[in-house]
Amino acid sequence: MIQFIMLRTHMTNLTHASSPEPPQPRQEAERNFRAQTSTAGPSYNVPIAVEQVVQTLSETKLRFLIQSQLCDNPNFVKTIENFFLVKGKDIIRYHEDTESEDCGESEESELEEFPSDVESENSNDKRERKRREKVILAEDEEVIPKNAICENCKEEFELDRNERGCCVWHLGRKVLNDAEDFWADHDPNCHGDPEIFIDDPDLAEGFLWTCCKKAGDADGCKKTKHKNKHNIVRARVPSPSPVRTSRKRKAERAVAMVNCATCHERYDGNNEEESEGCRFHLGYKKVSNKSEYAESFEWSCCGEVGDNPGCEFREHIPINRGKRQQ
């Protein structure tokens, strides 16, 4: 949220920039931004009325404003890259085995799980080798949005800022507490099924978590890193068997993660369920003239608002195969 406010305040200054600057590491970009805005002052005096209207714009109008700057303002694009994108190699990994991600585990103990055959290998080299052995969806140099929603606690987090203990959640599920007298005076015929009150904070004591047997409003009993499909460590594709086979067959077995030529999403080519998840638009994005989509975009194929998911479904087409078909 802080990053978005900084970006929103900085948008007017970027409009008056003349030429793009080279991309900067995120920490350096933040330092430079704060230095420019707090000490030296802005290079352009933004009218107070403009600052006020930017602070009160709706999400739809803010998106329209941002999208309108992307094509004509290279400096603004660089700001987006510095603040909101991350390379695959900088993503902090998450293991499906939650015990290894518990708050009490240390990084040094994790490094011990990766013994080295090289006696001179220091901790930094070992840490880098460990990272390379943990395969995730994104390649090392692939750039993706850094903000994601955690599958466990449902909170937003940054993929490159994710430490043990950041995510507090329950491993089990919330169920009705029949052992107590909390529901003794509850008449289902009059008040309804107790299950419909499972998320009511005033009736939290009538439920408990299966994992820790605590009341429904108790804080999570599990403290781990945040989890999202982009940081989950995936099993490596098994090496080809020593049986002699063609180079083509070896290449097919060696490749697991591929890009779709249609929707450009990255997916596991060996997973049938993921292979059927291509969602795309047949048309193109254009400025909308509908009143409900004021100052926004819509798709020519279905008339839906610009950020609406695709209106067509089919299997993913690997990008290499898509090129051959063209």
Summarize the structure.
The chain is an alpha+beta fold.
Radius of gyration: 25 Å
Helix count?
11
Major sheet summary line? 2 strands, antiparallel
Low-confidence segments, given as residue ranges, are 14-23, 36-41, 111-118, 248-255, 322-326
Can you give the mean pLDDT? 75
Give helix and strand order, one letter per element, not per position.
HHHHHEHHEEEEEHEEHEEHEEEEH
Beta-strand percentage range: 5-15%
- Give the total of beta strands: 14
What is the terminal separation in angstroms? 43 Å
- Shape annotation: globular
* Spatial sequence of strands, sheet with the most strands: 1-2
Helical content, roughly? 25-40%
Counting helices, strands and paired strands, the structural category is alpha+beta
Task: Please write out the topology.
Elements: H1 2-15, H2 26-40, H3 48-56, H4 59-70, H5 74-84, E1 85-87, H6 107-111, H7 123-132, E2 143-145, E3 147-149, E4 156-158, E5 167-169, E6 174-176, H8 188-191, E7 207-209, E8 222-224, H9 247-254, E9 257-259, E10 266-268, H10 272-275, E11 278-280, E12 285-287, E13 297-299, E14 312-314, H11 319-325
Antiparallel strand pairs: 1-2, 3-4, 5-8, 6-7, 9-10, 11-14, 12-13
Helix pairs in contact: 1-5
Top keywords for this entry?
alpha+beta; single chain; two-stranded antiparallel sheet; globular
Task: Give a verbal description of the structure.
The protein has 326 residues and is an alpha+beta fold. 30% of the residues lie in helices and 13% in strands. The chain contains 11 helices and 14 strands. The protein has helices spanning 2-15, 26-40, 48-56, 59-70, 74-84, 107-111, 123-132, 188-191, 247-254, 272-275, 319-325; strands at residues 85-87, 143-145, 147-149, 156-158, 167-169, 174-176, 207-209, 222-224, 257-259, 266-268, 278-280, 285-287, 297-299, 312-314. A hairpin with a 6-residue loop joins β3 and β4. The protein is globular.
